Amino acid sequence: MTHYLSMFDKSFIGAWSLDGEDVVVTIESVKAGNAPKKPGEKKAARKAIVKLREFEELWLLNVTNGATIAAMYGAHVEKWVGKRVTLFPTTTSSFGDTVECIRVKPTVPRDEPKGGEKKPHAAAALAEATNPKELIAAIRSCAKWIANNSSERWPKVMELCEKHDVGELEADAALQEALS
Predict the structure, then answer these.
(1) Stretch 99-125: mean pLDDT, rounded?
(2) Same-domain check for residues 130 and 99
(3) The domain containing residue 49 runs over which residues?
(4) Which residues contact 99 (CB under 8 A, 6 or more apart)?
């Protein structure tokens, strides 16, 4: 099902990006930057902006999640690069409202034994496909994720299809089959 927030132009991930699941991600970089201004704010808030290997969008790191990562890997963000964390969607109280948010599990993700690896996040599964057969299998396994924001995600799937010489009709058939 499509989360309504996934339909807006978003430069940053939110709880809706996790599709209701825990997602293990790898930190590629952490830089200071300005968050988008909220209505009524005079200036943008300064935040840590995190690039994750598994998402094209960036992640605005809040103090709570930063403290959780620091407890696992130390307070210096340079040491976080290449480290994995588990994100999960939940809710929190904010100015009297209950809102969806992302939180970080306070434990380092375990490496699964060979043969028992956890399924990668949908974006990573698609990007890791190395041939047409793997791409079609990834489209089937990621169908709900693709359909959740098809206007943004389907063109990216089509780019991968072109790279692997998979026709749009074949990709669409795989998606529809998986969704039915």
Answers:
(1) 70
(2) no
(3) 4-104
(4) 91, 92, 93
